C-alpha cells in the first residue's frame, strides 16, 4: 500500500552543521529547533526591532516567528534560498503586519521606520552605551545612502525596483551599490 | 562565470536578501553546494546582515521556553495543526501509562547520570570537560522529553476525557481497508482524528474531515489533514457541531466547499 513507502534517511553525519539542524527541524526535532533558536533568535529579534522599534513587541513577534518556523519548517526549501533568508522573510512579514495593526497605529503614530537613523540618534544612556557605540562606529563609516539601501533591501523587504524608487537611483545601480556597501561594512567589521 | 565574476556581480548579496528569481536562487544554491569559495562568500555576507540585525536589539534573553509554550498552546488549544506523534500505541490505548513511562524515563536518566559519575571516578580531569557537555546533552534531552510529554498529556486528556466519545469510521468502497478513529470530546468541542490507516494522498490532494447531521444530510467541514503521511497521522480539530456522523473525503489541495462523495474514504455514525 502507498502509505508503507519508506523514504531514504538523510546522511546526518556528513552534513554541515546548519544543514543537519535544519533537516532535523523539518523532522520536528525539538533539540535542533532550540539550537537554531539560539543561533538566530537575537538576529531575528533585532531585524523585527528595526521595523517595530519596540523591544518588548519585537520579542513577542520573534516568538511568533519561531512558532511559525516550527509549524512551517517542512515548507522551507534550501534550493530556494538560505535558511537565514527564509527566517528574515517570515520576520519581516510578521513585523510589517504588526505595523499595519490598530495596536501599532495607536501606540506609534509618529514612529519612523528608519531604524538605523533611529539608533544613531538614540541618546547614549544606561547600560546600552557600549552597545550603540559599536553600531555607531560601524555605521558612521558607511555613507548615508548605504544605510538607506541596506535597510530597504534587508529589513524593509523592498524589491530592487522599490529600493531604486525610494532612493531615486537607477535600478541597475541598486545591485552594485549594495555590493559596495556590504563590502565596506565587512571591512569595518574586520577592523572591529 | 568565474568565482571572481560571481562575487563581484553583487548577485550573492541579493541572494542573501532573497531578491533573486526562483530559478537564479536554485542555480546559486547548487553552486554553493559545490564551491567552497562561493559558500564562504555567501556566509560572510550573511554574517554581516546578521550582525547588523543583532545590533538592532538590546535584548539578550530570547527565551526558548516561551516559544515552546506558544507551540503547545497553539497546537492543543487553538489551531487544528498536525500533531506529530510516532507512538501508535499511545493513541490507541484509552489510558496511557504515564507513571510507568515517567518511571522508565527516570531510570534512564539515573543510568545516564550513573554513567557520568562512573566515568568521573576513572578520569577526573578528562571527565570534567565531558561531563559539562553530557549535562548539557542531558538537559536538552530532558527538556525535549518534557515538551513531548506535555503535549502528549494534553492530547491524551482529550482522548481520555469522560466526555469523549470514540467513533469508528469504517473504510468505504474506494478504500475498504481504511479504518479511522475519532475521539470526540463533546465538552471541549474538539476531535482527535487517528487516521493512520488512510493511504498517502496523491500530490495536490488532501483529506478533508466532515461532520454530518443526517436529517437532512448536512455536511460541515471540520478541517484538512494537512501534510498527512505515515509519521503525521494524528490531528486535533475543533468541532462545535452536533455531529451525527463523521466522514473523510479526498479533495483538491485547500479543501472543498462540499464533500466529493465518490472520494469518501471512511464514514461512521456517532450513535455507537
Task: List strands and helices in order, with pairings.
The complex is a heterodimer of chains A (192) and B (272).
Chain A: H1 17-26, H2 30-52, H3 55-72, H4 83-99, H5 102-107, H6 115-121, H7 129-140, H8 144-155, H9 160-167, H10 171-190
Helix pairs in contact in A: 1-2, 2-3, 2-4, 3-4, 8-9, 8-10, 9-10
Chain B: H1 3-9, H2 11-17, H3 22-34, H4 36-55, H5 64-78, E1 82-83, H6 88-92, H7 98-122, H8 124-160, E2 164-171, E3 179-185, E4 190-194, E5 205-213, E6 218-225, E7 234-238, E8 245-252, E9 264-269
Antiparallel strand pairs in B: 1-7, 2-3, 2-9, 3-4, 4-7, 5-6, 5-8, 8-9
Describe the structure in your own words:
The complex is a heterodimer of chains A (192) and B (272). With 192 residues, chain A is mainly alpha-helical. Mean pLDDT of chain A is 76; it is low at 1-9 and 109-129. Chain A is built from ten helices and no strands. In chain A, helix 8 runs antiparallel to helix 9 (160-167). In chain A, 36% of the residues are buried. Chain B is an alpha+beta fold and 272 residues long. Chain B has a nine-stranded antiparallel beta sheet with strand order 1-7-4-3-2-9-8-5-6. Residues 78-95 of chain B have low confidence and may be disordered. Classes of the chains: A mainly alpha (192), B alpha+beta (272).
List keywords for this structure.
heterodimer; A: 192 residues; mainly alpha; 10 helices; disordered N terminus; B: 272 residues; alpha+beta; 8 helices; extended
